[in-house]
Design a protein that fits this description.
Four copies of one chain form a homotetramer. Chain A is an alpha+beta fold and 101 residues long. Chain A contains three helices and four strands. Chain A has one domain: Alpha-Beta Plaits (2-Layer Sandwich), CATH 3.30.70. Helix content of chain A is 37%, strand content 32%. In chain A, strands 2-3-1-4 form a four-stranded antiparallel β-sheet. The longest helix of chain A has 17 residues. The radius of gyration of chain A is 15 Å and the shape is elongated. In chain A, 44% of the residues are buried. Chains in contact: A-B, A-C, A-D, B-C, B-D, C-D. At the B-C interface, helix 2 and strand 4 of B face helix 2 and strand 4 of C. Strand 4 of chain B pairs antiparallel with strand 4 of chain C.
Chain lengths: 101, 101, 101, 101
């Protein structure tokens, strides 16, 4: 398995407040332990670029963060875009669209 | 219903090429017909900000674009983040996380 | 636009309890107002079959249900599978896989 | 990490045919190598129940299946529902909703 681009959303449920930014910040901090991954924070998710196995390990760690902060239930969504005919990158995907606009 | 932030991914299936950027470019062009919506292209999706009903109309239009280009099957994913205790915006969501980092 | 199969998940955020089944039950009740739609409750979602426009109206109504019950933030995910070369149904999709197993 | 309920969708892109059931059947066959996982095929996904690490290994294996069949690009979506205040099961989730209907 090689490089993938993946999108992750980690949502604690039943926390008692509609604000989730404190949890999202903690989830971002977890990524510091994965320096080989590129990451991009968007208003709806975190996008990761790197080796499949390292992405998966990062997602497992991100998923644990809200539990450490007291959440009793966490819903984590991961979408993996894996292409084997050419190297896939976040910048390459954006550029390919922009060239055509 | 008021303002929401929403994430959209429109994927044509069975097109015969692993490259999808031409379809994504056409889907982005569809958004020109919805000037009241803010949009942000990410490497994994398009994020929209605006009134719920207008977001839904835009997503329906984006979903039709690959069919016009010849696709026979389209998978469209929409995730809506709707908050009623305060106004929700793409910038506000990002800022709330960044303040805590 | 014609018939689609769609998957819906409506999740209230910040409710103060890790249990969400009361909300899911209310979301299911909303579907009684859409008798032309077929629906299937799974452990992770509700799957709908019917005309695109009616599916979208149902999803909007399902999305409002947790707000009526007091939630201040709702995350709704909709994935639409739309096929134009043949009629798409929940049963047809399952049967096509089972024939090949 | 303990037991989770998770939903998986593995979609090959650019295959040249709008029909995907042959790929879905192969992805289901991969699950035979994971006998401790419970699984349920729905019209939109496969739902798994079991230990987090085993679920993740199964998803990695499912994700490889379309590549073995010749696909050059695969989009895999995984949503994990993880609850730590009580044991989570597919049957328990459905029953909790049905009791309230």
């Amino acid at each position: 398995m090689g490089q993938v681009v993946a999108e992750v959303t980690v949502v604690p449920l039943g926390t008692g407040s509609a604000s989730l930014s404190g949890y999202v910040a903690e989830i971002e901090r977890v990524l510091k332990a994965f320096p080989r991954l590129k990451s991009m924070l968007t208003p709806m998710s975190t996008i990761l670029e790197g080796e499949m196995d390292e992405v998966v390990e990062a997602v497992k760690a991100m998923h644990e963060a809200p539990f450490r902060m007291g959440a009793m239930r966490v819903s984590t969504t991961l979408r993996i875009d894996d292409r084997r005919d050419k190297k896939i990158t976040m910048a390459g995907k954006l550029n390919a669209v922009r060239e055509k606009l």
